[in-house]
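Apologies for my clumsy wording, but can you show me some protein sequence, whichever is easiest, together with the matching structure tokens, please?
=====
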Amino acid sequence: MRPFWLMRLLSRSMYEGGYLTPRLYVPRQLWYQRGVKYVAIDTKYQACINLVQHLQKIRNTKVENCSEVYEVLRGLENEMEAIQNMLSKKLKFIDEIIELGAVVSLDKKINMSLLWKYGYDRLSRSMDKFTNKKGEKVGDVSGYIDILITLFNQAQFFVEWINYIEAKGKANPNELQYAHIHNQLGRISYFFGRVICTFVLRDFEMLLDRYLYKLKQNIFF
């Protein structure tokens, strides 16, 4: 559950300032610097919008209803896969996911002839809603940071779900439904850590360098 813990820290620092580590305090104004040129900000903003909208649809699902939870998480995983592929086109440090058949996952270096053989055309059609429509554009930097805060806060219900499913799985080790859902939640947690938190921390590194440079300029000049 480390990604959700990190998202709580990031959200607090964005909203009112807070510690990311015991020795690193991040003031709110660091996130809201003017004149910052973000990499692929519109794509990242659109990804966050899509996730927030999907989380709002599923967050009130009763975690006790395993069959319903399994279905809504499967839909979310499909959404996350499409979002990751959308981001991978703009951010080189994010891998593209390509599903071949039911279980095979390869990176973007795959031979294109194999891609067609295993149904690239079908996969492309499934991505239409992300690649063919005009995405929303963020009006200013504050809009991007605000949607990150919303996303990080909205995602926290997964902590309760993970705790519940883990407890049920331990109490009922022969019930495979809990193992399946636990695996789904693990993949969702990994997505938030590997994709969302990764690009936000990249933004943070850039903002921190800029903030310290401006601070130095104000002190010595």
Remarks:
- Residues 2-220 form one domain.
- The first strand starts at residue 18 and ends at 21.
- The longest helix spans residues 176-220.
